[in-house]
Design a protein that fits this description.
The structure is a single chain. 67% of the residues lie in helices and 17% in strands. The chain is of the alpha+beta class and 150 residues long. It starts with a helix and ends in a 7-residue tail after the last helix. The model has no long low-confidence stretch (mean pLDDT 90).
Length: 150
């Protein structure tokens, strides 16, 4: 009977560990998703800068305002871009400086995302390992076997 309660205690601990691992995996997935969105945003911004570089002053542009809608605008300074640097602060940069900044941000995001993906893979591996052990213990408890029989 003592063996059975030991198995049940291990089952309880494994169940708690599984919940924590699943929450960690979910958090990592959310971070990866947010980083993917930021990477997409920076990629579009870089592509837009490439296009703007080809334009001349007073070129007429269609600027997206959301909902598949656009407003016509004239390009006043094709060599200048206002770039957000965080905390609601923006500064003016040349197109070349902005492109370099975007490239740097993209590289950092990709590096961070690679790390998060690696962490996710490790957590997923631990979840699978714990799940297998949990199933084995459940079978053991149901059948009344001792841990040595598992």
């Amino acid at each position: 009977m003592a063996v059975r309660s030991k198995d049940e205690e291990e089952l309880r601990k494994l169940s708690i560990e599984m919940r924590l691992l699943e929450q960690t995996a979910e958090t990592l997935q959310q971070r990866i998703s947010m980083m993917n969105a930021a990477i997409t945003d920076l990629t579009y911004a870089s592509m837009t800068l490439e296009g703007i570089e080809q334009e001349k002053e007073n070129a007429e542009l269609l600027v997206p305002i959301g909902g598949s809608s656009y407003v016509k605008a004239k390009l006043a300074a094709p060599d200048k871009v206002v770039v957000g640097i965080g905390a609601g602060v923006s500064i003016e940069k040349t197109v070349a400086e902005a492109k370099a900044l975007f490239k740097e941000r993209l590289e950092e995001l990709q590096k961070t995302m690679g790390s998060a993906q690696q962490q996710f893979a490790q957590v997923a591996e631990r979840i699978n390992s714990s799940r297998n052990r949990l199933e084995s213990l459940l079978t053991s408890v149901r059948e009344g076997k001792t841990p040595g029989d598992v």
